[in-house]
Amino acid sequence: MVNLQAHPDFPPSDAIAVSVAWNGSADGILAPTFTVEDWSIVRIPDPVPPVRTDGLWKTTCFELFLRSEGADGYFEFNFSPSGAWAAYAFDGYRAGMRDLDIAPPVIAFGSGRLEVTLDLASLPGGAWRAGLSAIIEDRDGAKSYWALAHPPGKPDFHHADCFAIELPAASGA
What we know:
By secondary structure, the chain is an all-beta fold. Helices cover 0% and strands 42% of the residues. The protein has a single domain, classed as Immunoglobulin-like (Sandwich), CATH 2.60.40. It is globular, with a radius of gyration of 15 Å. The model has no long low-confidence stretch (mean pLDDT 92).
C-alpha cells in the first residue's frame, strides 16, 4: 500500500488520508484499490452506468498514469466513484491527447474504497513507471489534490515527477 500526499497549496479542509493498494497479475490485469480514510466529508458523484466520460477531474476522481520506461508517451486512466471512467493516450507531456481504445474497467465503489480492475493486455508490454493521483472534492466544494509526489508549482499529475512507482514487466499485446 502507498499513501498519496496532498498538494501543499490545496490541502484538504478536514483531516483525511488517501492510499492505494496494488493487485495485479502476469496476464496484464492491474487492480488498484483507492481508499479514503473518511468518505463522510467527500462529495461523491451520483451513480451512473459505467460509461466513458470526459471531465471526471472536475469532482472526486481517482487517476492512474502509466509510461513505459524511457518513453515520452503515456496513458491516463480516470475512475469515478459514480462508475464513470476515461482513458487517454498522450504522445508526450500533455501533447497528442486522444481517447485510448481499451476494454472498459470494472469499477466497484463501497465499503470505504474504490476498487478498479483494468485490463492492460492491449497495451505494449514491459516495465512501467506509474503515477497515482486523486482529486477529492469535499461537501463544501473545496478540492484537494493528491499524488505520490508533487512537482513545484500548481498540481500537475502529468509531470514526470509524479510517475513515482516502478511496475515490473507484465504481458501485453
